[in-house]
Amino acid sequence: MRPRFGRLLLTAALLSLSVGLYAAHRFQDGEGAALEGLRTLELSEARGDMALYPRALARLEERLAHYPDDYEANLLKGLILFRSGRLEEARQELAQLTRRAPKFHLAHLVQGDLLLAQTQTVTDIGATPLLAGLQAEEEALAQLRAEAEVRLKSYLDALPQDRLPRTLLTLGEDVQTAIVVDKESHRLYIYERGGQGEPPRLVRDYYVSTGRANGNKNLRGDLRTPEGVYFITGHIPSSELPDKYGSGAFPLNYPNELDRRLGKTGDGIWLHGTENAFYSRPPLDSEGCVVLPNIDLDQAAAFIRPGVTPLVITARVDWVDEGAWRRERQELLDALNLWLEDWTSGDVERYLAHYAADFWSPGYDLQRWQARKRAVAQGKKFQQVELSNLSLFAYPQSAAGRDLVVASFRQHYRSNNFNADLGKRLYLTRENGRWRVLYEGGS
Predict the structure, then answer these.
(1) Residue 202 DSSP label
(2) What average pLDDT score do residues 296-312 get?
(3) Bond into 255 cis (ω within 30)
(4) At what angle do helices 105-116 and 138-157 cross, to 10 degrees?
C-alpha cells in the first residue's frame, strides 16, 4: 500500500466518525439547528447544473436498479443529493456506500464533508479543520478532489442521448463490443454493435485513471497514455500478476502500426485493475496504462474478447450526431467498394491510384508496392475479392494529425493462380478530398 494513501484512507474514515460525533454534540447543544450556514459542495465548472439534477437522479436510480453494486452510481447520487440541498438523503446514501465499499477513499471524505456541513460551511472536499493541519496529505486530497470532479462532471456532461463517438463507424459481425476511452473526462465507454447499418449502443461506462503525465505517449517511460486505435490482445489473470494490477490485465497492441511508423517506443500498455488495498486511483496516477477499479474491471471483462475487441483511446471523444455518423460511414464504405472494384477490374493503374504518396506496408514503400503489383497483374486472368467482418474506426485527430480511418476485415481473394483468406488492416487517409490507402498489412 502506498503510505500516503494508506494514511489518507485512515484519516478519511476517522473523519467520518469524528465529524459525526461532533455534529451530534453541536445539535444536542442547540447550535446550528437551523442549518443557516449550509452550502452544498461546489466543484469547479459545476455551477449551473441544477436543472440537470432531477434527470440525473432518475437515471442513477435506473442504473442502480440494473446494477445494484455500481458504487460509482451511489457516490454520484450522494453528491447530487448533497448539492441539491437534500442533506439527510445524501448522508444516508454515503453511509451505506462506505459500509459496502470500505476502501473507497473518496466516499469516506465526502461522507465526512456531509456530516460537517450540518454545523458549518463546506466549500471543497476534505476542506475541514480536522484535515487542515495535515499538509503532508494535501497532494492526496487534491487528487481525490480531482477524482470527484471528473466523475460528476463527466456524468452530467454525458446526459444527452443523441451523441455517438465518431470513432466507431462500423463494427464487424464478430465484433460484438468496442471500448472508447476519453482521457479528458477519465471515462471508459463500452458500446455494443447495433443492427445492420445501425449505430452502436452504449451499454456501460466507467471512471478510469490514466498516465501521470498529460499528452500522447511518445517514448518509453514518459508516463503518458497513448492515443490511437488499439486491440486487446490477451488476458492475464491476477494470479500471474503483482498486486498493483488488481483483478487482472488486458494487454493492448501498443505500439500499433502507426506508432511504429512514427518512431514511438515503449510497450506494456494494459487495461488493468487497482491495487487491492484501494477502491480506485486518482485521475492521473498510472505509468501509462488505463486503470479501472477492480469491481468495474470484473464487470467490463464480460464484454471483452481478447484478439477481437478494439479499444480506442482519445484525448477527447469527438461526439457527433447520427446524421454526421451515417454520412462519414457511407463515405468510407463507398471508398472501399471503389478500391475493390478497381482492384478486380484488371486495370492495375486505376487500382494503384487508391494508394497515398506516403504509403507503406511491411517491406514496401509506394514505389516498391507499385512495381510488385504491376508484375503480379501480368499473370492475372481474373480476380475476385470480397470482404467480411468489416470494422471501421476513425483515428483520433490528436494522435494522427490528419484524417485517418482504420479498416479491419477478413479478405477473401480468388484468382486464376492464387487463392487466400486472411485478416487485413488498412489505414485510410484523406488526400485532396479522396480516401486513399496509407498502410496495408495483415491483422
Answers:
(1) E
(2) 97
(3) yes
(4) 90
The answer to whether the beta carbons of residues 326 and 392 sit under 8 Å apart is no
The three grid cell numbers given for residue 421, joined into one nine-digit string: 483468406
Contacts of 401 (CB under 8 A, 6+ apart): none
Nearest alpha carbon to residue 186 among 287, 291, 101, 274: 291
> Is residue 236 left, alpha or beta, with left meaning phi > 0 and alpha meaning psi from -120 to 50?
beta
Q: Which residues contact 338 (CB under 8 A, 6 or more apart)?
A: 354
140-177 confidence digits (pLDDT tens): 667 777 888 888 888 877 655 679 999 999 999 999 99
Residue 420 in contact with residue 204, Cβ under 8 Å?
A: no
Cα 388 to Cα 144: distance, rounded to the nearest angstrom: 46
Q: DSSP letters along 10-51, please?
A: HHHHHHHHHHHHHHHHHHHTTTTTT-TT------TT-TT-GG
The string over 322-361, giving b where at least 16 C-beta atoms fall within 10 Å of a residue's C-beta and e elsewhere, is eeebbebbeebbebbeebbebbbeeebeebbebbbeebbb
Q: What is the CA radius of gyration of the chain?
A: 26
Domain ranges of the chain: 3-157, 164-319, 320-442
Q: What is the pTM of this model?
A: 0.83
213 with 222: CB under 8 angstroms? yes
Contact 330, 433 (CB under 8 A): no
Pick the residue with more confidence: 440 or 398? Answer: 440
**Candidates 3.10.450.50, 3.90.180.10, 3.80.10.10, 3.30.450.20; CATH matching 320-442:** 3.10.450.50
- What is the pLDDT, as a whole number, of residue 124? 54
Per-residue pLDDT of 219-256, as tens digits, reads 999 999 999 999 999 999 999 999 999 999 999 999 99
Q: Which residue reads 503483482 in cell numbers?
A: 242
Sign of the CA dihedral running 79, 80, 81, 84: positive
> CATH topology for 164-319?
L,D-transpeptidase catalytic domain-like (2.40.440)
pLDDT in tens, 355-384: 999 999 999 999 999 999 999 999 999 999
**SS3 of residue 92 by DSSP:** helix
Q: Is residue 41 over pLDDT 60?
A: no
Calculate mean pLDDT across residues 31-40.
33
φ, ψ for residue 318 (rounded to 5)? -90, 100
